[in-house]
Amino acid sequence: MLECVANVSEGRDTTAIAALEVSAVRSVADVHSDADHHRTVFTLIAAPGSLLADVRELARETVRRVDLRAHAGVHPRLGALDVVPFVPIGKTPVEVAIGAREATMEYLADLGVPSFRYGPLPDGSVRSLPEVRRRAFAELSPDAGPPSPHPTAGASAVGVRSPLVAWNLWLSGVPLEHTRAIAAAIRSPEVRALGFDVTGGTQVSCNLLVPDRVTPGDVFDLVASELPAGGDIDRAELVGLAPASVLAAVAEERWERLDLRRDRTIEAAMVRLGIASRA
Questions:
Q1: Yes or no: is domain 2-160 CATH 3.30.990.10?
Q2: Predicted local confidence at residue 279, as pLDDT
Q3: Where, residue-wise, is CATH 3.30.70.670 in the chain?
Q4: Mean pLDDT in residue range 150-170
Q5: Any idea what the Cα angle at residue 207 is, between residues 222 and 231, rounded to 5°?
Q6: Which of 49, 100, 146, 238 could bond to 259 as cystine, CB 3.0-4.6 Å?
Q7: What is the DSSP string of 223-265?
Q8: Was domain 165-271 assigned CATH 3.40.228.10?
Q9: Which tens digit of pLDDT belongs to each residue from 225-261?
């Protein structure tokens, strides 16, 4: 089995989001939209052949519907179908995910959308997603597709990675400058973080790269320790799904505060999709 966590630069048009979900409906395990980020995360899980077919349909519908020329959101973006990571599940070899990445890049090229690889590269090196964002179209040329961005759909970063947790903390009484300083203070090889101005306050938006080692609970405590006088953490938000191992690494009495639930795990989603047993 493979997971694909496709990030689409549309988080406000509910009609478009519904159409995008329908395009990949056989594999959809979770949909999370955010109007401030102007972004929707579609978590797809299926056998490789079925998953690739649905990713292609999602890509086609995204290029048709999402126009970056009218896009404004707090989250950085390269394109309409902004990030397309493939994640091997269980004993699935990483080579299967790499094959899915390469096939998706070829399909995007057919749509006129350039793409950049991240994760393990053919020469044996590893490229990170932040590196793609930083270098794309400057010192880094696309790995597939045309040399310049699609006029309405931009470009895509297509990757292979391990399971991670996308997780946000909503703050009150914390100015944006201080929120960005908090994000910088908690960054590490295990945690990527950015500070954003959002409706009703500010937000520390995180990717936890080794989430059963540096857990949502650990990051919550780090952020709490950096708050200024009068600042508070309003709530936590899990974006998409988390591996069950993350819940096992966090005391159960903290789950509600951290927005963790058993039914929001990859494993529970596979049961709902009928591709895993409850045993």
A1: yes
A2: 39
A3: 165-271
A4: 97
A5: 35
A6: 238
A7: HHHHPPTT-EEEEEEEES-B-HHHHHTS-GGGTTTTT--GGGB
A8: no
A9: 999 999 999 999 999 999 999 999 999 999 999 999 9
- 210-221: per-residue pLDDT in tens? 999 999 999 999
Lookup result for tokens 């579609």: 42
**What DSSP character marks residue 175?**
-
Look at residue 127 in the predicted model and tell me its pLDDT. Answer: 97
pLDDT of amino acid 20: 96
Cβ atoms < 10 Å from Cβ of 63 = 21
Model confidence over 61-120: pLDDT tens digits?
999 999 999 888 888 899 999 999 999 998 999 999 999 999 999 999 999 999 999 999
Alpha-carbon gap, residue 51 to 92, rounded angstroms: 14
Of 173, 279, 270, 274, the C-alpha closest to 227 is 173
> Which of 186-225 are b and which e, b meaning 16 or more Cβ less than 10 Å from the residue's Cβ?
beeebbbbbbbebeebbbbbbbbbebbebbbbbbbebbee
Q: With 0-12 CB in 10 A as exposed, 13-18 as middle and 19+ as buried, what is 137?
A: middle
| pLDDT value, residue 70 | 83
**Alpha carbon distance 216, 247 (integer Å):** 9
Given a contact cutoff of 8 angstroms between Cβ atoms, the answer to whether 30 and 269 are in contact is: yes
Q: How far apart, in Å, do the first and last CA atoms of the chain sit?
A: 17
